[in-house]
């Protein structure tokens, strides 16, 4: 009985017809007649109700098409919108030849049509959007993260092998020392791109075939070829449209090739590194000898012309030379479970795991317990019938919740500053708040308590309204003290509503990156071990590990977040089980 | 009927899902469509707020001259990361404005192209700028401004520039004892987050004591194989830093960040501040009588070598209009007019000698910052630099806090070496 009533009360507190019981609720309303539910459905029969409501109520039995032309028009409009969105999304997919994407669009649209065009399948009408939401915002990110965890993606390994080769070759082109600079005009002849080059009054035409003198060229301002017989000079926009060709064209000349530098200049340069498909390697002069790609500092300096070979290593995703040096540009390769095992076996990664994990649990539990305690206490105080100016107090209490958390975290951080912070100045203290492990931990807890209790207060206030005052009166008549009434009546009923939120609050705070990172950045760090700070959560520790030290290592970071995800999932499931909230709702 | 709102929600979700799916594939289609309509060519430039306003007229003039369009997008935060992600997705700009120390990472990701300037063009830049944008013997950016740390001094409180850091501390202590100031020196020991040390600001003192971060390769780049942290010199340097710290002279304190140091200086609560040219505007506005001199080194030690940062223009490898971008960067952006306009917008030392003369004539502080940068070394652009920051920041805090130096240095060295090995 009590659960029954609470559920109706819950329905009133959260007016969200999100479950499959839409028609059932209407039924209950007519059957029950009176009570809270009845009140909601009453406009059903009243002819003077607002038109929107009337339409809504009439359609509740959901049999056949509703008669109102407005409703039909609205439905067509919305369905038309779905089709329009689908077409809009499909167009670029089709033009890019992404048939998987197109197929997904088609299937989703068809499913949407099927569900919403027919009057039947009422549950599906609610399930369809939620399922899509879950797929798009829960399942897809998790799957994507897991797939990234199997690669070495990160700085230096972002693109494909072909992109890496292009980058290696492009960045190895060097201007011939002391060589002349040509004035360049980009032109075309029979569709083929030609460089019209001017140098000290002489003009040349250069193609991939070679360089030859150009007769009958007219030089324009800046010494550039303005026109030449048989060539169509391209405007900057036209030339830019063929930009890839312009940058790739190298006119072979003795000792190098002439390449474009923008659209009005050309220079003689040489690509020092080149990729050979035969050996799957990159060849070039030893960078240790002269200026090089900065990767190695091998001995042998001064030996002009000494060649070095970097072979493709498909395991590492980079070109590695025999001496172990590698070219900086690498590519993305699959590394299997290496990232996942590295997170477990690499001593740099896992040595501090347990310590961080322990504090992480303490942090999440403390934050939930403290915020809940304070929130409930305040809610009870303001719920008292003899309390005055409740609205003013409520507004004040909710204020921290209304302020942007990011800004507040930074403000708190500055307030904890030893010499200039408000906390020390106001209290006349000299405490190094964020510099000592214990006070730093206390500080982040305090900040999170301040940020978090209004949420708990709001929830508890809402839940308190649903507890019928008869219970209290009955308990009072039975002679229960205030403490007993709270302990035996109010709290159990409150917890019924609060427990699932406490669990989700726990999951949130377990990963409360901002709450720690913006206040202490994980610090203070012990002198003998800069890797892990006293207030580090797993997520901030992971963040620094992945992005802080060796540049961005998305693969490793993904592997770590898979672990964090698993931990949170397990903890959440266990605590949901323990609070038995699922069973309570299901019953 | 309750259905319509739900159908609406469905449509919304559908749209979201589809755009999410379409994100990856859509770009190829767009770029393949571009060449057909040449007049649609748009040169896309990414810059921060200040630069974008200054560059706008130049970009528009360039666009008009070439019959194209130019668009400047303001990217205020996280520019390097955003650029990397956007470029990888095929949505990056053609030209990006940034700091020279991005070069190493951007090159290893294949995201920027070399800029082929003639030797004559290159010789027009101050040495440190030319050196900074050269990576692996190749020039990757067109520099426009040089910045480094210097010592700001309140000339009302301290008329004479200190010869050494010890002298500075002595003066500061005297002023503090006399009740004229509250702090000995506004030295940003901590980063903005307050909880990690600030390698950038502490580096001058570290180098003055004879220590280094990386050695140098034959090509002039920093050499990750020669790590200076953990050497005897580095221990000695941190011993000297610790002497000035919280358990020593009390001059260096972890509570100082760049922001509150500037606030203290501008309010006259300290006579000295170590800061960069970006603090000039505030100091002038506050009406403090100030002078700028190079950061003093330790007594009887080498000069303090601040990091020099060089602001530059880069050509994106994955831009859609690379040829145009090269043209714009090496032609328009490398011109003295642009350098002057950028200086007029913000008083930072120009990298182009011609513009430097103009700037020095206009603003006496430029020459002072030039002198401050004289002993400086370019901030290492090699990607291995990321291994330094976190351990070194922690090391700074430990030393200033007064914890045993040798152990802290050894731990930092171990952490850095471990990262470099990976």
Automatic annotation (TrEMBL), chain A:
The protein's matches in Gene3D superfamilies, at most eight in alphabetical order, are given as: MalF N-terminal region-like, MetI-like
Q: Where is this region: Disordered?
A: 1-64
* ABC transmembrane type-1 domain span: 357-575
- What does the entry give for GO biological process? maltodextrin transmembrane transport
| Any single Pfam family the record assigns to this protein | BPD_transp_1
UniProt entry tagged with the keyword rRNA-binding: no
- Membrane spanning residue stretches: 72-91, 97-117, 126-143, 357-380, 392-412, 442-464, 489-508, 554-574
Compartments reported by the entry = Cell membrane
An MF annotation (GO) of this entry: ABC-type maltose transporter activity
Output the Gene Ontology cellular-component terms.
Answer: maltose transport complex
Cite the entry's keywords alphabetically.
Cell membrane, Membrane, Sugar transport, Transmembrane, Transmembrane helix, Transport
The way this protein sits in the membrane is described as: Multi-pass membrane protein
Which InterPro entries does this UniProt record tie to the protein?
MalF_N, MetI-like, MetI-like_sf, TM_PBP2_N
Q: Does the keyword RNA-binding apply?
A: no
Give the record's family classification. Belongs to the binding-protein-dependent transport system permease family. MalFG subfamily.
Physiological role: Part of the ABC transporter complex MalEFGK involved in maltose/maltodextrin import. Probably responsible for the translocation of the substrate across the membrane.
* The protein, known as: Maltose/maltodextrin transport system permease protein
Biological source species: Planobispora longispora
Automatic annotation (TrEMBL), chain B:
Q: Which UniProt keywords apply?
A: Signal, Sugar transport, Transport
Give a GO biological-process term: maltodextrin transmembrane transport
List the Gene Ontology MF annotations in alphabetical order.
carbohydrate transmembrane transporter activity; maltose binding
Task: Name the source's superkingdom.
Answer: Bacteria
User: PROSITE patterns, alphabetically?
Assistant: PROKAR_LIPOPROTEIN
Pfam families tied to this protein: SBP_bac_8
Please tell me one Gene Ontology term that the record gives under cellular component.
Answer: ATP-binding cassette (ABC) transporter complex, substrate-binding subunit-containing
> What start and end residues bound the annotated signal peptide?
1-22
**Family per record:** Belongs to the bacterial solute-binding protein 1 family.
What is the recorded name of this protein?
Answer: Sugar ABC transporter substrate-binding protein
Species this protein is from: Planobispora longispora
């Amino acid at each position: 009985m009590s659960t029954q009533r609470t559920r109706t009360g819950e329905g009133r507190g959260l007016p969200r017809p999100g479950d499959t019981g839409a028609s059932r609720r209407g039924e209950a309303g007519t059957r029950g007649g009176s009570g809270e539910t009845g009140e909601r459905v009453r406009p059903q029969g009243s002819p003077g109700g607002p038109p929107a409501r009337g339409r809504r109520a009439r359609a509740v039995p959901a049999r056949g098409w509703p008669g109102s032309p407005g409703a039909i028009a609205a439905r067509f409009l919305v369905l038309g919108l779905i089709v329009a969105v689908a077409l809009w999304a499909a167009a670029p997919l089709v033009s890019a030849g992404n048939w998987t994407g197109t197929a997904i669009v088609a299937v989703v649209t068809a499913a949407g049509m099927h569900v919403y065009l027919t009057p039947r399948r009422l549950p599906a009408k609610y399930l369809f959007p939620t399922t899509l939401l879950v797929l798009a915002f829960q399942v897809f990110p998790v799957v994507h993260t897991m797939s990234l965890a199997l690669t070495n993606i990160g700085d230096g390994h972002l693109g494909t092998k072909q992109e890496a080769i292009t980058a290696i070759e492009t960045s190895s082109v060097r201007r011939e020392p002391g060589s002349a600079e040509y004035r360049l005009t980009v032109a075309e002849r029979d569709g083929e791109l030609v460089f019209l080059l001017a140098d000290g009054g002489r003009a040349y035409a250069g193609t991939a075939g070679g360089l030859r003198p150009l007769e009958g060229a007219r030089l324009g301002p800046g010494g550039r070829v303005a026109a030449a017989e048989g060539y169509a000079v391209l405007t900057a926009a036209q030339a830019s449209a063929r930009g890839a060709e312009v940058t790739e064209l190298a006119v072979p000349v003795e000792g190098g090739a002439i390449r474009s530098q923008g659209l009005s200049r050309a220079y003689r340069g040489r690509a020092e590194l080149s990729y050979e498909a035969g050996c799957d390697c990159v060849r070039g002069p030893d960078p240790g000898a002269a200026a090089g790609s900065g990767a190695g500092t091998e001995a042998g300096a001064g030996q002009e012309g000494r060649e070095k070979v970097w072979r493709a290593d498909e395991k590492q995703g980079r070109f590695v030379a025999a001496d172990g040096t590698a070219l900086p540009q690498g590519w993305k390769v699959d590394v299997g479970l290496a990232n996942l095992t590295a997170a477990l076996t690499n001593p740099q990664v896992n040595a501090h795991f347990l310590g961080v994990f322990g504090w992480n649990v303490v942090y999440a539990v403390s934050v939930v317990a403290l915020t809940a305690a304070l929130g409930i206490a305040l809610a009870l105080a303001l719920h008292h019938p003899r309390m005055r100016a409740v609205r003013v107090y409520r507004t004040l209490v909710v204020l921290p919740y209304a302020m942007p958390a990011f800004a507040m975290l930074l403000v708190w951080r500055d307030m904890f500053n030893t010499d200039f912070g408000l906390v020390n100045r106001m209290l006349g203290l000299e405490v190094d708040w964020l510099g000592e492990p214990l006070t730093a931990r206390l500080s982040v807890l305090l900040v999170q308590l301040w940020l978090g209790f209004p949420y708990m207060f709001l929830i508890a206030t809402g839940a308190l309204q649903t507890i019928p005052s008869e219970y209290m009166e009955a308990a009072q008549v039975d002679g229960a003290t205030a403490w007993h009434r709270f302990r035996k009546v109010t709290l159990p009923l409150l917890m019924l509503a609060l427990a699932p939120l406490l669990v989700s609050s726990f999951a949130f705070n377990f990963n409360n990156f901002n709450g720690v990172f913006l206040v202490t950045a994980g610090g203070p760090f012990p002198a003998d071990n800069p890797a892990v700070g006293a207030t580090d959560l797993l997520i901030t520790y992971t963040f620094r590990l992945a992005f802080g030290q060796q540049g961005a290592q998305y693969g490793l970071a993904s592997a770590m977040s898979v672990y964090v995800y698993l931990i949170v999932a397990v903890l959440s499931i266990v605590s949901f089980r323990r609070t038995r909230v699922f069973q309570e709702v299901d019953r | 009927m309750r259905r319509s709102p739900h159908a609406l929600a469905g449509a919304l979700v559908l749209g979201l899902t589809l755009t999410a799916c379409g994100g990856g594939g859509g770009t190829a289609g767009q770029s393949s469509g571009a060449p057909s309509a040449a007049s649609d060519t748009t040169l896309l430039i990414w810059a921060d707020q200040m630069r974008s306003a200054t560059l706008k007229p130049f970009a528009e003039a360039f666009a008009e001259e070439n019959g194209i369009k130019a668009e400047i997008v303001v990217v205020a935060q996280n520019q390097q990361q955003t650029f990397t992600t956007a470029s990888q997705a095929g949505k990056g700009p053609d030209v990006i404005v940034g700091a020279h120390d991005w070069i190493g990472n951007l090159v290893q990701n294949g995201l920027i192209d070399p800029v082929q300037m003639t030797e004559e063009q290159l010789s027009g830049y101050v040495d440190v700028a030319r050196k900074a944008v050269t990576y692996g013997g190749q020039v990757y950016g067109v520099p426009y401004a040089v910045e480094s740390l210097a010592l700001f001094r309140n000339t009302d409180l301290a008329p004479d520039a200190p010869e050494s850091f010890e002298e500075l501390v002595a003066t500061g202590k005297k002023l503090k004892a006399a009740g004229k100031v509250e702090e000995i020196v506004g030295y940003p020991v901590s980063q903005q987050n307050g909880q990690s040390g600030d390698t950038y600001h502490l580096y001058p003192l570290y180098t003055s004591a004879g220590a280094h971060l990386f050695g140098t390769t034959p090509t002039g780049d920093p050499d990750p194989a020669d790590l200076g942290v953990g050497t005897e010199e580095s221990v000695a340097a941190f011993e000297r830093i610790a002497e000035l710290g919280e358990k020593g002279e009390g001059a260096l304190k972890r509570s100082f960040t760049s922001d509150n140091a500037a606030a203290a200086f501008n309010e006259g609560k300290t006579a000295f501040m170590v800061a960069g040219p970006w603090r000039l505007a505030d100091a002038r506005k506050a009406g403090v009588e100030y002078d700028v001199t190079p950061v003093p080194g330790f007594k009887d030690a080498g000069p303090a070598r601040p990091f020099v940062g060089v602001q530059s223009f880069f050509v994106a490898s994955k831009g859609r209009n690379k040829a145009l971008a090269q043209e714009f960067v090496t032609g328009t952006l490398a011109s003295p007019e642009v350098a002057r306009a950028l200086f007029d917008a913000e008083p930072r030392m120009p990298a182009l000698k011609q513009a430097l003369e103009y700037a020095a004539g206009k603003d006496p502080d430029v020459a002072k910052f030039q002198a401050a940068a004289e002993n400086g070394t370019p901030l290492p652009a090699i990607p291995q630099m990321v291994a330094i920051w976190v351990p070194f920041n922690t090391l700074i805090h430990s030393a200033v806090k007064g914890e045993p130096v040798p152990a802290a240095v050894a731990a930092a060295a171990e952490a850095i070496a471990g990262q470099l090995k990976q």
